[in-house]
Amino acid sequence: MNMDDVARRGLVLLGCGKMGSAMLAGWLRSGLPATSVWVNDPYPSDWLTQQGVNINAVLPESPAIVLVAVKPQMMADALPTLRSYGNGDTVFLSVAAGITIGTYETMLGAETPVIRAMPNTPAAIGRGVTAIVGNAQASADMMDLADNLLQAIGQVVRLDAESQMSAVTAISGCGPAYVFHLIEAMAAAGEKAGLAPELAMQLAKATVGGAGQLAEDADDSPTQLRINVTSPNGVTFEALKVLMNETDGFPVLMDRAVQAAVNRDQELSNG
Ligand SMILES: NC(=O)C1=CN([C@@H]2O[C@H](COP(=O)(O)OP(=O)(O)OC[C@H]3O[C@@H](n4cnc5c(N)ncnc54)[C@H](O)[C@@H]3O)[C@@H](O)[C@H]2O)C=CC1
Ligand SMILES: O=C(O)[C@@H]1CCC=N1
Q1: Average pLDDT, integer, range 165-169
Q2: Which residue, of 72, 115, 238, 263, is most buried by count of CB atoms within 10 Å of its CB?
């Protein structure tokens, strides 16, 4: 199965909100014909209605891929509408946090090819990272196809086991929100230190964006890049004493936040 098969047989999106739209935008940009896409969503966005895709129309008989991008809480209502595609060679590619492969097999049939994916919102600018893992019915060809599709929205990593998905969700799925909050917190602290709000926000955004890009591009590790900023007994040194404090610093806080996310993902997985 390849991209030509997707164009010929069709791609169905169940739910096209923030994540579904980010992914669809990447696929349309990379050449998937809009007429090969069917979206099932009761509240199509203005953006979606301008893309030339089929919206809430009669669905194709045997699409190559169904992207499941509804909220986990909507799954029980939404998924049964696509049960006829189960136990066939339509691949179900799910981005829903906490919905296990086993749940799909129960709802759609044990022979259904299912690939679980955890993308993130930088997908909207082609800078996402998506982790994938499939069931036994997801052939090597199907995994390659999902990998190719997802490369249109950024990097792709393959997991050894579905059990890694909670931690992946807590790091890269939710992670953009942590970084956006870091920007908010830096800008607020800049204001408190005397800067105008717009200037504080510009400095915070550009600093996080630039540092993130440097961390990805540089040969040096993030640790070395941090050391490069930190003059002995200088200004950064004093700030890092606070942020790297072993009792209430950033690592302790991040560990607690990630654990809370992992726990919530596991609650969703257990229904
Ligand atoms: N937003 C994010 O950063 C990430 C989200 N995800 C996962 O993506 C999924 C979607 O999340 P978002 O896009 O953020 O939510 P969203 O609320 O933006 O999108 C959900 C879409 O589903 C539609 N919908 C509701 N009921 C439906 C039904 N019965 N049939 C078809 N469509 C229906 C809604 O109209 C909406 O457009 C979730 O399962 C979430 O766990 C995964 C990774 C990152
Ligand atoms: O907050 C959520 O449940 C989803 C999962 C990863 C990002 N957003």
Answers
A1: 97
A2: 115
Q: Is 192 annotated as belonging to a binding site?
A: no
Q: What mean pLDDT do residues 148-162 have?
A: 95
Q: What is the CATH number of the domain that holds 135?
A: 3.40.50.720
CATH number at residue 249: 1.10.3730.10
- Give the model's pLDDT for residue 59: 96
- Supply angle C-alpha 87, 39, 165, rounded to 5: 60
Q: Of 141, 162, 183, which residue sits at a domain end?
A: 162
- Report the pLDDT averaged over residues 138-156: 95
Asked if residue 123 lies in contact with residue 153, where contact means CB atoms within 8 angstroms, the answer is yes
Flag whether 35 is in a domain: yes
- pTM beyond 0.80: the answer is yes
Question: Is residue 158 located within the same domain as residue 179?
Answer: no
- The two structure tokens encoding residue 8: 């010929």
Q: Of 129, 169, 178, which is best to mutate to test ligand 2, by the most ligand atoms within 8 angstroms of its C-beta?
A: 169
Number of structural domains in the chain: 2
Is 70 labelled a binding residue?
A: yes
Residues 6+ apart with CB under 8 A from 240: 226, 230
Cα dihedral 141, 160, 136, 118 sign = negative
Residues in Cβ contact with 77 at an 8 Å cutoff, skipping those fewer than 6 apart:
none
pLDDT, tens digit (0-9, with 9 covering 90-100), for 83-98:
999 999 999 999 999 9
Q: Residue 95: CB within 6 Å of ligand 1?
A: yes
Average pLDDT, integer, range 94-113: 95
pLDDT (average), residues 156-166: 97
